[in-house]
Amino acid sequence: MNKLNPLENIDDWDDDILKRYPEKTTDKTKKEFRDYQNSNRAKTVREFYKLNHQYQSFEFVSKKEDRFLKFNERKMSIWDAVEFLNTLVDDSDPDIELDQLQHLLQTSEAIRSDGHPDWFVLTGFLHDVGKVLCLFGEPQWAVVGDTFPVGCSFSKSIVHSEYFSLNPDSSNPNYNTKYGIYKENCGLDNVKMSWGHDEYLYQIVKDYLPQESLYMIRYHSFYSQHKENAYNHLLNELDIKMFEWVKKFNKYDLYSKAPIPPDSKALRPYYEDLVSKYLPNTLNF
Ligand SMILES: [Fe+2]
Ligand SMILES: [Fe+2]
Q1: Which pLDDT value is given to residue 14?
Q2: How far is Cα 94 from Cα 49, in angstroms, rounded to an integer?
Q3: Residue 271 falls inside a structural domain
């Protein structure tokens, strides 16, 4: 196991979420979850969260924002970015893992087949493109994983919250209270979230997509809120309304995984049109 990047595949994190939040909880899924908790994969996921919770402090996030929100890594079209992202899984087992493009297409195709508006379909297709951060040399725990507010106390509802005792913010009196540096119901736009692929992509596309879509992109890994309502005290009315969309989106992100890969060649013309309807030819990453 690589100490800095404990997951064999960055999607092991998503698989862990699926175990935490199965589509329907049955005795079988409960048993599967218990078995999973004893597995080697569960150990690497634990190690991953330990690093994430230890290092995602207010200062750490500020530094990442300073670096990546200048967008001087690369100029790419969305297609370049998706192809670039796909190099991530080259060395994983092709029998069991879907590549990144396939996950994006399964999500977006499930949205499309439910008859949702085209910007919702596009959101499904784009939502994980921010994972290109991994290819800029960022460690897994600074790209994927549940996201959460920094600058106030960490909720017990966050997975493996015990590891927050290792985070310097936990002993910083400015940050370790319920509200920390924030005001009651100040709105999430005023709240700094832990750094990862969600915030990064949001910042790249924020001028081009409807508000609902931007919420889905920005908060899709904020499980302690959209599954547990742990930060209601920071949300404003707009956030509450928009989180209905985040929840709607989450269903497709988590539960559209099927073993049959979508036909990416056949689907490409549709998605080319859709991308060019909303986004410029190239974007700054
Ligand atoms: Fe994601
Ligand atoms: Fe996803």
Answers
A1: 85
A2: 26
A3: yes
Cα of 102 from ligand 1 centre, angstroms: 13
Q: Compute the distance from residue 253 Cα to the ligand 2 centre, in Å.
A: 5
Residue 125 lies inside a defined structural domain of this protein: yes
Distance 20 CA to ligand 2 centre (A): 15
Query: Is the whole-model pTM more than 0.85?
Result: yes
Question: Could you tell me the residue range of the domain that residue 92 belongs to?
Answer: 12-284
CA 211 vs CA 54, 64, 205, 217: distances in Å:
32, 24, 11, 10
Q: In angstroms, what is the span from residue 198 Cα to ligand 1's centroid?
A: 6
Question: Total structural domains in the chain?
Answer: 1
Give me ligand 1 centre to Cα 38, in Å.
25
Give the number of the ligand closest to the Cα of residue 131.
1
In 3-state terms, what secondary structure has residue 149? strand
pLDDT tens for residues 227-280?
A: 999 999 999 999 999 999 999 999 999 998 888 889 999 999 999 999 999 999
